[in-house]
């Protein structure tokens, strides 16, 4: 009998419903459990009080003037690998210079690239 592998969770923060659902489908097809898509930071912050994912894909700009900076800060504190998936890649350096070393993927992304990114992030996770 083979040992059952623990599920690996990828947090998705994306305020565009269709893009968020595409990211979820791609992550799940890659073999991971998707958390989200979350369209606002408050919902994510509530989740992070009780559960820490293995990896995360974050849009930078959300509805209005909200950014995912606070989420990125918390993920960094917990050592969770993440990447920005955004239509505004220059925003990382301008709005979140402390996260400028995080991977940045420009939207639109090909599903194969998102799957490879999720795989790379999960494998870099400190969770065994």
From TrEMBL:
Keywords attached to this entry: Phosphoprotein
SUPFAM superfamilies, per database record: CheY-like
Start and end residues of each Response regulatory domain: 9-122
Gene3D superfamilies with a match to the protein in the record: 3.40.50.2300
Biological process terms in GO annotation: phosphorelay signal transduction system
Modified residues (4-aspartylphosphate): 59
PROSITE patterns assigned: RESPONSE_REGULATORY
InterPro entries, per database record: CheY-like_superfamily, Sig_transdc_resp-reg_receiver
SMART domains with a match to the protein in the record: REC
Superkingdom, natural source: Bacteria
Record-given protein name: Response regulatory domain-containing protein
